[in-house]
Design brief:
homodimer; alpha/beta; Rossmann fold; Dehydroquinate synthase-like, alpha domain; 2 domains; two-stranded antiparallel ribbon; 8 strands; about 15% strand; globular
């Protein structure tokens, strides 16, 4: 077992109508907040109004920044940070899914000292403080509500990268499963794929921690039980709650106790797909994970055999890969590039960009040849 | 699923030589600390000296209180609090197992406003602040290193009771598995029993949370895999590490996500055994849990059937009870009262004290008749 630290300062409020506590908690940081959200769906679905009502009730002055994209852009982060700085906000209320909350994390790091957002993302400047974040989650997927990670993309450099910062944990996160009830079928499915991929990234991280392995299996089994049920009944509160809790636990640290972090090679591959073809994150992962497993079956089968045994009762890696592919198909998430309109003619561009961006895992290194093989498995 | 909050402010340092960070972290709260420990074993085994060396290195002034008992007494808590108050300590370093750290938690609540310790335990006085606690754990069992709970007994009132307080989380806990390498076979086994019992208390708590059920099974399976291996090789670092992590996770909140707390009926029964006969906590639980399960098999079999299925692959509750009894026997922990010298002649006193102390669970109520039946199952 590796040495490790357990520390997670986020206070997470989970359940029916927990947003009622948002105003009071926001007020504790001061009277002016930057309300960050994405497209109009939170307005149409009434979540925006519920949040504004709670903030009004506590007499919070609201500065708004709307329009964060699904694959969040560094330009929006820059603009939101400038707005927040100009109005000297005391906090950020991030209403949305991973893209909005991730953006809020970088905005929060930029505001106090007027830092450049992409320089923050690339660790080129030192961050000393962050504006407090209160997150209201509307999509169960990334786990950003209870960790210090953020992913943002830069179209100019063709990079979609992650930034981790101990200052980036939301102070409070509010998870009402009802706030995810209007997520359409495809993005509901992508969220389930994403959380399972997070659990796998922990499983394939460096270090040997049998309890963490068991926790990974617990989260994946739960998601594989309730994901398909949820697709059949998108408004069921308990199914939404189970998947929402799975997503939080997949990336709030629990699954990496005793390990030196996750692998993250597959995410890195998926990010390249997204930056090139605007592929939804979850869809990129249901294509990339089976392909990556097929490569590792050949090169490093040991961990795959253990996972196969724990998830499917047999050490046969083919059963694991087949089982996951069948599950992704059941979730209507793509498992091959041609399903999302990416023909063989675009594969060279894909491989080249991965090579240029040094796509690899922390535990399982990926050579140029490996990346080519993985793309072949995606066809 | 029940509404719930995830919040755990303890920073837990886990692994080889983590105590090297103790001095620096203690210093962050001020230069004078109350060092609390139990019997001389920490001195004999060198842990005391390692802790003192680290505190000296950071020029911390140490006030000592030694002699906390295995079943910790309220009188020691009172005396330690008076000592800490007199010397105006800035922090408490608790070196030991559950008894020492639990005592430290009540001491910490008493010091700032000179509160009476038993009144604190019984929630008769309001607590507003607590002296910061830094825990150095020497026994994997109770999970106290990462929660707000403390159990102390009062021989005068013949009560052994728990107190939970959001102020009671240690600020830092240092878990070096090597610090548990000298725990003898019996207390090593009792620790494993205790952590499994904590996981079960969560399982039998109010609310339906499939992921938490799976996390419970993960912890119990891990402990059932590595507990017997550890008994065969008491100084193995990895076995010690696995069990230590199991014990922390059994009671740091993870297993109760989505539930309204645990049941705690069996712990309440066990505490009565300890207060009457000075039975080690773990030993009381390996006797009490099978007996409680035999009662519930008759009255409320549903959850037991699910646990049997998840742990032993069949809904047959008898298999579950038999499996747990066999495991406890393998761990050389008692499963009947006569194994610890309690004859039938003492059972009436036992039942009477449970009735007097209103022993029951939060989820599964226990009538007087139920308590009698449970004791019959213990014979």
């Amino acid at each position: 077992m590796e040495n490790f630290i357990i520390y997670n300062p986020t206070k997470l409020h989970f359940g029916d109508e927990v947003v009622e506590n948002l105003g009071k908690e926001t007020k504790s940081y001061g009277k002016k907040t930057l309300l960050l959200y994405g497209k109009g769906s939170v307005v149409r679905n009434g979540y925006y109004q519920q949040v504004v009502d709670q903030l009004n009730k506590s007499e919070i002055e609201i500065i708004e920044y709307a329009g964060i994209k699904s694959n969040p852009l560094i330009s929006d982060v820059e603009a939101a940070a400038e707005l927040g700085r100009k109005h000297q906000v005391d906090s950020i209320v991030a209403l949305g899914g991973g893209s909005v909350i991730d953006s809020a994390k970088i905005v929060a790091l930029c505001i106090p000292e007027a830092l450049n957002a992409w320089a923050v993302m690339k660790y080129r400047v030192k961050t000393k403080e962050a504006t407090p974040i209160l997150a209201v989650l509307t999509l169960a997927a990334t786990g950003t509500e209870m960790n210090g990670a953020a992913v943002v993309q830069n179209p100019e450099t063709k990079e979609k990268i992650g930034h981790w910062n101990p200052l980036s944990y939301p102070k409070h996160s509010f998870l009402d499963p009802s706030f995810t009830a209007t997520v359409p079928e495809d993005y509901t499915a992508y969220g389930v794929v994403d959380l399972i991929a997070h659990a796998f990234e922990s499983y394939f991280g460096k270090g040997d921690s049998p309890l963490s392995d068991r926790f990974v299996v617990a989260v994946v089994e739960d998601a594989m039980e309730f994901g398909p049920k949820l697709l059949e009944n998108l408004t069921d509160y308990d199914y939404r709650a189970n998947i929402m809790l799975d997503a939080t636990c997949a990336l709030n640290g629990i699954l990496s106790y005793g390990k030196a972090g996750g692998d993250w090679g597959v995410h890195s591959i998926g990010h390249t797909l997204s930056v090139l073809f605007d592929t939804p994150h979850g869809a990129s992962l249901s294509i990339a994970y089976p392909a990556w497993m097929k490569l590792q079956k050949k090169n490093n089968p040991e961990r795959l055999e253990k996972l196969a045994k724990q998830l499917f009762g047999s050490e046969d890696v083919d059963l694991l890969i087949q089982g996951m592919e069948e599950f992704f198909v059941k979730m209507k998430s793509p498992i091959r590039l041609n399903e999302i309109g990416i023909g063989d003619d675009k594969c060279e561009e894909f491989v080249e960009l991965m090579i240029k961006n040094n796509v690899s895992g922390y535990n399982y290194q990926l050579s140029k040849e490996n990346l080519r093989e993985i793309v072949d498995f995606m066809k």
